[in-house]
Amino acid sequence: MFAFKKIWVSGLLVLLLSPIVACSPSSESASSSGDTKTMEPLVTGAIPDQDPEKLQRLYTKLADYLEAELGVPVEYKPVTDYTAAVTAFRVGDLDLVWFGGLTGVQARLQVEGAEAIAQRDIDSEFTSVFIANKNSGINSITDSDGLQKLKGHTFTFGSESSTSGRLMPQYFLEKAGVMPEDFKGEVGFSQSHDATLQLVEAGTYEAGALNSQVWKSRVEEGEVDLDKVQVIWETPTYYDYHWVINPEVKEQYGEDFSEKVQAALLKLDPKNPEHQEILELFGADKFIPTKNENYTQIEEVGRKIGKIK
C-alpha distances in angstroms, 153 versus 187, 206, 210, 226? Predict the structure, then answer.
């Protein structure tokens, strides 16, 4: 009988204390932690301008860094092509995107309030390089007029919407009086800078144009056979790559969230080993602020060749 009473009293105490435990500070903390885990992630993306494996490595590391800095879940979502990146940004599937100059302009024109917030230190004076297979007979040139040497040869751009692999190379070609119909056969669109390099090196196309930073990186990494392919000309400078943020993030994370993201990007420091790895993958020493107005020239050229209407 005594044992029965003891068990009954213990059960009664548990029932009486349960509401207190449920309302305790530790319980509230757990609930708060649960809310954080279910928070909608900040979704980042990028134009697929290089080898997909390299992009996955880069943007996964960056997502981890941003998540730690911003205190919100961050995920990287790859896209199939340049147009898909612009579309995903427009419909809200991507919140923060690493665009080229042209795609950045295209995206911002479709999303009112979108802002260019950061670029690499190299992007305010970016260039493209024209390369040629050494068996093509195309030699180095000293100025844009020399691009006329490309007439009658096969040629490939990168993606159709690439600033450094199509837009600006076509701009300089047209300034030199070279039109797409002047090339031998149909002009190619390789879809990425790495692909352009590989196609010209293999002799599939006699010449092509690509991002100068990708060219320099691949040479440094020993991935280019300099006995087969060479740079024949480097363009004048222009503004190119940059981060663009969707204004809808303010509703999810607060009015000052764009500034927080910008600050996190600018905080990347080459003296910090973890930061240095990210910056090296970007081919930069640091990120610097930028603004929409810096891409006026890109917009003008885009409209001239029909990539922006």
Answer: 10, 6, 17, 20
d(CA 284, CA 76): 20
- Domain ranges across the chain: 2-36, 39-123+240-304, 127-234
Decide if pLDDT at 28 tops 50. Answer: no
Q: Which CATH architecture has domain 39-123+240-304?
A: 3-Layer(aba) Sandwich (3.40)
CATH topology of domain 127-234: D-Maltodextrin-Binding Protein; domain 2 (3.40.190)
Which long-range contacts does 112-115 make (Cβ < 8 Å, 24+ apart)? 112/247, 113/247, 114/89, 114/244, 114/245, 114/246, 114/247, 115/244, 115/245, 115/247, 115/258, 115/291, 115/292
- Mean pLDDT on 245-264: 97
Q: Examine the pLDDT at 35 and tell me if it is beyond 90.
A: no
CA gap 60, 63 in Å, rounded: 5
User: What residues does 98 pair with on adjacent strands?
Assistant: 46, 243
Q: Give the pLDDT of residue 172.
A: 97
Give this prediction's pTM: 0.83
Rounded to an integer, what distance in angstroms lies between the CA atom of residue 306 and that of residue 171?
Answer: 12
User: Apex CA 31: angle with CA 30 and CA 35, to 5°?
Assistant: 115
CB-based burial label for 242 (10 Å; 0-12, 13-18, 19+): buried
Encoding tokens for residue 297?
């020239």
Question: Closest Cα to residue 61, out of 261, 267, 266, 281?
Answer: 281
Look at the block and give the residue holding tokens 């600006």: 168
DSSP letter string, 238-271: B---EEEE-TTHHHHH-TTHHHHHHHHHHH--TT
